[in-house]
Design goal:
By secondary structure, the protein is α+β, with helices and mostly antiparallel strands. Helix content is 16%, strand content 55%. It has one helix and four strands.
């Protein structure tokens, strides 16, 4: 679920990008690299998501993402999204 949360956050980063139109394009999860889980997350924990775009080419977006709980890194991964026109 943490990977899913990070991927969804990357989708929001993409949706805020001027080069991506949510009306004429869709994004798909293409890759997950270097996923690391450092802390157990239990029901009731609040995940704070951070993402930083590290590469963007034509139809690819690569983001370094992490989940924090109480300021401690719970997990991290590099997420790649691919964009397709509708």
């Amino acid at each position: 679920l943490q990977i899913e949360a990070m991927a969804q956050a990357c989708g929001l980063i993409l949706a805020c990008n001027n080069k991506f139109s949510i009306n004429s394009s869709i994004a798909f999860l293409a890759a997950i690299e270097g996923a690391k889980f450092k802390k157990i997350v239990i029901p009731g924990d609040q995940l704070i998501l951070h993402g930083k775009v590290v590469a963007q080419k034509r139809n690819l977006l690569k983001v370094e993402a992490e989940c924090l709980v109480d300021g401690i890194k719970a997990s991290s991964a590099t997420i790649t999204l691919v964009m397709k026109s509708l």
